[in-house]
UniProtKB/TrEMBL annotation:
<feature type="domain" description="SYO1-like TPR repeats">
    <location>
        <begin position="466"/>
        <end position="694"/>
    </location>
</feature>
<feature type="compositionally biased region" description="Basic residues">
    <location>
        <begin position="1"/>
        <end position="18"/>
    </location>
</feature>
<feature type="compositionally biased region" description="Polar residues">
    <location>
        <begin position="253"/>
        <end position="263"/>
    </location>
</feature>
<feature type="compositionally biased region" description="Basic and acidic residues">
    <location>
        <begin position="264"/>
        <end position="277"/>
    </location>
</feature>
<dbReference type="InterPro" id="IPR052616">
    <property type="entry name" value="SYO1-like"/>
</dbReference>
<protein>
    <submittedName>
        <fullName>ARM repeat-containing protein</fullName>
    </submittedName>
</protein>
<dbReference type="InterPro" id="IPR016024">
    <property type="entry name" value="ARM-type_fold"/>
</dbReference>
<dbReference type="Pfam" id="PF25567">
    <property type="entry name" value="TPR_SYO1"/>
</dbReference>
<dbReference type="GO" id="GO:0051082">
    <property type="term" value="F:unfolded protein binding"/>
</dbReference>
<dbReference type="GO" id="GO:0006606">
    <property type="term" value="P:protein import into nucleus"/>
</dbReference>
<feature type="region of interest" description="Disordered">
    <location>
        <begin position="1"/>
        <end position="26"/>
    </location>
</feature>
<dbReference type="InterPro" id="IPR057990">
    <property type="entry name" value="TPR_SYO1"/>
</dbReference>
<feature type="region of interest" description="Disordered">
    <location>
        <begin position="336"/>
        <end position="363"/>
    </location>
</feature>
<comment type="similarity">
    <text>Belongs to the nuclear import and ribosome assembly adapter family.</text>
</comment>
<feature type="region of interest" description="Disordered">
    <location>
        <begin position="252"/>
        <end position="277"/>
    </location>
</feature>
<dbReference type="InterPro" id="IPR011989">
    <property type="entry name" value="ARM-like"/>
</dbReference>
<dbReference type="GO" id="GO:0042273">
    <property type="term" value="P:ribosomal large subunit biogenesis"/>
</dbReference>
């Protein structure tokens, strides 16, 4: 019998803010914030808040700058300030009459939004931060136009010109963070028509400080990510696309993650921003990401003829994967040990002055290197997502079927099996893939990537440490591990979809490394039915009180499960495609029982179905337990589940027992699963009627396939001899 079709996995949500430093280890409420904030900083909060409304502009500037210093890597103090409405007061200061106050207020809001993530972004949006930001954009555009056109400076605009670039960087970063807050905020930002404003920084990048250009690119990258109104505006301009192509091709990336050349030193010994190799690399990676977001380009543009992935993206990203995370973590800890807490700024100190030590500047460079790698992995995950489009539709039953499933079938029986599909046109149409698919050139290139991605997956000592002595580095490392897993999963699924060969030793090494994440968090359970643990209605019963405490985030473990599933899928038809641990099936059942993520549970089911096809006699008892698990929801009393999970169980059942010649096929007969499937068929039809959209369409197709599978099974000689013709007639009735 032919294999059942797998549902293509798509994007499920917007990306994480890559500079977000989590503070989940803190409690909630003002009391928790006060206890978490250092005593000396907590005592400084009230005087700083009072100065925000002072009549003297110098005091207001100082207060805004002090807030930025107080919240630096200090979530406790930040929450304390939140409880005193610091967001509302800073938004008011964006309309201040003094230019220095506006710049410092925007900087404080920027830092709050970065550190506070979605929670702070929502608060800012609800307090109407976009209204003064719209005015800020107009001021920045006007000043920037005068600077770029070499218009003579007037005395009244000297302060604005002096602070234009730090101000612009703050505003750009605010838009970047706010766009990831909610769909409502994104829609409001789309209405501001920011594309010309943002692209102006890239078009004039040779005349604008590099950090400001990078901030504009960050904002562009987020706003073009799965945001049709904005990305359509960007790719409609040949000039804008050409600017992005040029930015992506500037310089060449070295294995250490920098561009060629060394930073030139100014008279004061500080590297010129224009020659900062790490920022140039960051800009290149962002430009690559934006180009992928707006692809495919309009055919009339010259850039449409360029293979962006092969000619631009991969040459930029692949050298970055050589960064050693253990060495990076060690160096970050060394630098943090030498750094000191920032003092509050002195009154009259120029806005934007950081007075960083050499250690602090190097720590910032380490963090930026990690963030660039994180961005590169995010783009690479998209490149690796080369699953073929489901472009061919044909009625089920048309075309070839392996194993002669429909041969010698009674036409009325086949029609009865399809009754529950309820197709309006009388045909059950299911997405299927082309029988033969050419191997994409990009897939041929990235098939060698597992060796580069695997070193980025194991955790360093500080990757999941909470609280961490270096929160920004810890946050970046945790996200790097996650993105590396996602890229690896996409790569293996693409290889499986196109039948591309993945060497056995590669699959074994992937499984060994990734199982270290998955296997470390499964709970212990009693031995039942010949294996450890009990499966009831497709759910393993475990004692929550025995759950092992772990610092690995759940989203990382879920991504690791996806890699394991993809690893098994990439093995093709081989039931022993990977050398797995003895307790693999048990732990996958445990994860399926405990995970709140439906996709993760479905991948566990798919992996179990693969493992259940092993033919070695030593796996017989384990295969029986897997079969019991897969048939659990379909055994009376039937168990309603989500559509993805029900479909995963249906696929799993058919995949596991689609070869009647397998030595493992005896498990099907021993369990009496033919009768179970027959009893569940009409119940499944009723379940599918409750589903919506694509899930309902796929469910209809699977119910039809389920019915035909039953008929095929009953037609097999080994089963037919015991049932006789009367049994088949009874089933037809």
């Amino acid at each position: 019998m032919g294999k059942s079709q797998k549902k293509r996995v798509g994007k499920t949500g917007r990306r994480h803010n890559p500079v977000r430093v989590p503070d989940d280890h803190l409690g909630h409420g003002l009391a928790a914030a006060e206890s978490a904030a250092p005593a000396e900083r907590a005592a400084q909060v009230l005087p700083v808040m009072q100065k925000l409304s002072a009549p003297d502009a110098g005091d207001r500037t100082w207060a805004c700058s002090a807030i930025s210093n107080l919240i630096s890597n200090d979530p406790g103090t930040r929450r304390l300030l939140q409880g005193k409405n610091v967001v509302g007061q800073l938004i008011t200061r964006l309309s201040d009459s003094a230019e220095e106050v506006v710049v410092e207020a925007s900087g404080a809001l920027r830092n709050l939004c970065i550190d506070g993530g979605v929670e702070l972004g929502r608060e800012m949006y609800n307090k109407n931060v976009l209204s003064p930001l719209r005015t800020c954009v107009q001021k920045i555009s006007a000043t920037l136009d005068r600077i770029l056109s070499n218009t003579p400076v007037e005395p009244a605009e000297i302060p604005a010109r002096k602070l234009i670039y730090p101000f612009a960087e703050n505003v750009l970063t605010l838009f970047w963070c706010l766009s990831e807050t909610s769909q409502k905020a994104l829609t409001a930002i789309n209405a501001l028509d920011l594309a010309p404003f943002l692209l102006a920084f890239l078009l004039n990048r040779e005349q604008i400080p590099l950090p400001t250009v990078v901030a504009a690119a960050q904002c562009l990258y987020v706003l073009t990510d799965d945001n049709p109104p904005f990305l359509e505006a960007v790719r409609s301009s040949g000039e804008w696309v050409a600017a992005l192509m040029d930015a992506a091709r500037t310089g060449s990336v070295l294995p250490n993650g920098t561009t060629n050349g060394t930073p030139k030193k100014s008279d004061k010994g500080k590297a010129k921003e224009k020659d900062d190799p790490e920022r140039l690399t960051e800009l290149r990676v962002l430009a690559c990401g934006i180009l992928r977001n707006i692809s495919p380009l309009p055919s009339l543009l010259p850039a449409a003829a360029v293979d962006i992935d092969a000619q631009i993206v991969l040459p930029t990203i692949l050298p970055l994967l050589s960064l050693s995370l253990p060495a990076t973590a060690t160096r970050a800890l060394e630098l943090q040990g030498k750094a000191q807490t920032k003092p509050l700024p002195k009154k009259g100190q120029p806005p934007g002055t950081d007075h960083q030590s050499e250690e602090e500047r190097e720590l910032d460079a380490v963090e930026r290197r990690c963030r660039t790698l994180l961005m590169a992995l995010e783009v690479l995950a998209g490149v690796c997502a080369v699953l073929p489009d489901e472009v061919v539709l044909r009625p089920d039953g048309e075309g070839e079927e392996e194993g002669g499933m429909d041969e010698d079938m009674d036409e009325d029986m086949v029609a009865d099996a399809a009754d529950d599909t309820e197709e309006e046109d009388g045909e059950d149409r299911t997405p299927v893939l082309e029988a033969t698919l050419p191997l994409p050139s990009v897939l041929q290139t990235i098939l060698a990537l597992p060796a580069q991605l695997l070193p980025l997956i194991p955790a360093t000592p500080i990757s999941y440490l909470s609280p961490s002595p270096v929160p920004p580095i810890t946050s970046a490392l945790a996200q790097i591990h996650l993105r590396a897993l996602e890229a690896l999963s996409n790569l293996l699924l693409g290889a499986a979809a196109f039948g591309a060969p993945v060497p056995r030793e590669t699959r074994d090494e992937v499984w060994r490394v990734v199982w270290g994440i998955v296997g470390s968090g499964a709970e212990e359970a009693p031995k039942v039915n010949g294996v450890d643990g009990a499966a009831t209605n497709g759910t393993l019963l475990v004692d929550p009180s025995k759950a092992a405490e772990t610092k690995i985030p759940e989203e990382v473990r879920e991504a690791a499960v996806g890699v394991l599933w993809a690893c098994l899928e990439s093995g093709g038809a081989s039931a022993s495609a990977v050398e797995v641990q003895d307790d693999t099936a048990l732990k996958l059942m445990q994860i399926c029982a405990s995970s709140a993520d439906e996709d993760t549970r479905a991948r566990c089911v798919g992996s179990l179905a693969r493992l259940g096809q092993r033919t070695d006699p030593k796996h017989r008892e384990e295969n029986r337990a897997i079969a019991s698990f897969l048939f659990g929801p379909f055994t009376p009393p039937f168990t309603s589940q989500s559509a993805p999970l029900t479909l995963a169980h249906m696929h799993g059942v058919i995949d596991m027992f689609s070869d009647e010649t397998s030595p493992n096929d005896g498990v099907f007969a021993e369990g009496g699963y033919l009768q179970v499937m027959e009893q569940a068929r009409h119940w499944l039809g009723r379940e599918v009627r409750r589903w919506k959209g694509r899930e309902r369409d796929e469910g209809r197709g699977m119910v039809g396939e389920w019915g035909r599978f039953v008929l095929w099974r009953k037609s097999l000689p080994a089963l037919g001899e015991g049932a006789g013709g009367e049994g088949e007639d009874a089933m037809m009735e």
